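Co-fold these.
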Amino acid sequence: KNEVEQSPQNLTAQEGEFITINCSYSVGISALHWLQQHPGGGIVSLFMLSSGKKKHGRLIATINIQEKHSSLHITASHPRDSAVYICAFQGGSEKLVFGKGTKLTVNP
Amino acid sequence: DTAVSQTPKYLVTQMGNDKSIKCEQNLGHDTMYWYKQDSKKFLKIMFSYNNKELIINETVPNRFSPKSPDKAHLNLHINSLELGDSAVYFCASSQDRSNEQYFGPGTRLTVT
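Predicted complex below.
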């Protein structure tokens, strides 16, 4: 079992829909990262958080340390949001341990 | 201005060859990383350097040898390439070990 579980694995939405991607992890962590991998392959860091909630534009990331769970929300989704979203935690060793990613497709 | 750059972007080579991938960051960061993304798109840490010092060395065959000539560069040398080494290799950097990471564009290595 992977230390980081993401759900769903694949997600298809219509433009304008509210999207939620979930991430659960099994160990104590120092930080949780959300990354976006574009269809062209490039990886961008979206958020790094260790508590509470962060917002950037239409993206919101939340984390519940007690429940070992984080969510990434996208409001008013757009076809350009289509990408793979990857959750990763940073534990005691400070290395990133990655989930398998959620492939999001937003149709116009 | 590219923050984290890698060369080459594509590398096709035959089994048994030795090859290097170069990474440079112009962000003034102290920490650099190498990641491998396999055919199933799963990312895994290989190495991490902080101020030219190796701090993370995952279970990677010793055919892989990272070298950091200065804190802006982290190169990856691979000896005796095998078919299973085919993957996309990403370099990344961060201000220190507890900050967000900036990724390079990746190097797609194909071993034939």
